[in-house]
Amino acid sequence: MADQKWTGVIGLMSGTSLDGLDICYVEFAFINNTYEFRNLKAKTIAYSETWKHDLKNAFYLSPPDLEIFDSVFGKFLAQNTLDFISENVLQNKVELIASHGHTVFHQPNNKITVQIGSGKELNELTGIKVINDFRIKDVLLGGQGAPLVPVGDLHLFSKYQACLNLGGFSNISFDQNQKRIAFDISPCNLPINQLCKKYFNLEFDRNGDIARSGTLIESLFNELNAIPYYSQSPPKSLGFEWLTEKFMPIVDGYADHKPEALIRTITDHVGFQINEALKNNKIKEVLVTGGGAYNQYLINYLKKGEAQIVIPPAEIVEFKEALIFAFLGYLNLNNSINTLKSVTGASEDSIGGVRHFGHQQ
Question: Which 3 state secondary structure label does DSSP give 273?
Fold first, then answer.
């Protein structure tokens, strides 16, 4: 790939933890055989209770209703993108919108992965080129369709031995035998947030204060650690269905315990599984991003392990995934590989993403 001019891209990310829509603007260029980024502007648009309910329950919609909701959410993405462009005076600077959308189904073994947020609506309403549905091509090639962020870790954050993201699920990316590998380690914020909402009407465990106040339920801790997923070799990935069918039923079996103890035990479980993954893969230094990086109880648990825990500036902690989805779109736009078979287990590397270029400014 020849050296290129700077290209302005907007990245959109809606994670399983339902914190809100992450939206960022960033400029990319390929200079002296290296990908560079600059001029990051970003914000999170918090979801209303209605949006949280609707996104969480989209899993249960009939196919026709899901198609309608896909269009409705696409309009929501478009309006917030236009507002963001206006707020940041980015008119005529954005060449592409790269949208992860919101995952409703992720069953790669059945060759199913669905992220809503209609690319067609987004393109028509903004007049900007759109690339979305980044996972489906890899799934059809026999891959997990996840995680996709590691290609950004490889090209944009290569000075760190590994990158760990603490979102709805925890996932890690690193080089092994000169190949990039990555996988979901465990649930992370998603079950903790669910319990915080159920028992305390809180969105999350701020600073890990609830976990800190609880006592460990050793039998639950041991039962969670015995879940077969943890002994599987990569490539592997987790989704909402797995959490609902495999993880939460075990937690629900301990509903007679104090909620603080449940949250403490799940948080310890997350920390234990991450430290095991770091130790087993000989990771000595790891860049930590995602909302869980603000959970001081969890971070202190991780610091008990052998790896050095590096927390970057807040804008990278909060918006690294949106930034990297912008980068995935940039790679697609330049016909460059953005999905690695060494990460997903697919039959080949690929250029993931569906283009919606019909309406342009």
Answer: helix
